[in-house]
């Protein structure tokens, strides 16, 4: 097995493990006793008082879920940089 085949095998194994984990989370996650209707009502009634944002969507993304949105953006940035880096390094070897 050469290096390229080993790399593809490792990538395949990683993808399968991630797919199994995502499927497991989907199957075993539930609402965990959360009342989504109550949360929706709270946000629509209190978003202006809690966050000073006039729009409820803005309040959710920029105030209630600030850290979640920030880290999702960072993960997206790192992913794009990794793809760019890998595409440049593979073109140099050819």
Shape: elongated
Percent of residues in β-strands: under 5%
What is the count of structural domains? 2
How would you characterize the largest beta sheet? none
* Arithmetic mean of pLDDT: 81
Quaternary organisation:
single chain
- Unreliable stretches: none
Report Rg.
Answer: 21 Å
Q: How many angstroms does the end-to-end distance come to? A: 20 Å
Helicity level: over 70%
Order of helices and strands: HHHH
Structural class, please? mainly alpha
Number of strands: 0
Helical run tally: 4
Tell me what you see in this structure.
This protein is mainly α and 94 residues long. The chain has 2 domains: 1-30; 35-94, no CATH class. Helices cover 84% and strands 0% of the residues. It contains 4 helices and no strands. The longest helix is centred in the C-terminal third of the chain and has 28 residues, at 66-93. It starts with a helix and ends with a helix.
Quick structural overview:
This protein is an all-alpha fold and 94 residues long.
Key terms for this structure?
single chain; mainly alpha; 2 domains; 0% strand
List the helices and strands and how they pair.
Blueprint: H1 3-28, H2 36-51, H3 56-64, H4 66-93
């Amino acid at each position: 097995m050469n290096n390229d085949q080993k790399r593809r095998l490792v990538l395949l194994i990683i993808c399968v493990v991630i797919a199994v984990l995502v499927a497991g989370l989907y199957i075993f996650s539930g609402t965990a006793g959360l009342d989504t209707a109550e949360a929706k009502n709270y946000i629509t009634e209190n978003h202006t008082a809690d966050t000073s944002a006039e729009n409820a969507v803005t309040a959710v993304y920029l105030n209630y879920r600030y850290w979640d949105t920030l880290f999702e953006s960072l993960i997206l940035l790192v992913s794009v940089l990794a793809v760019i880096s890998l595409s440049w390094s593979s073109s140099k070897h050819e």
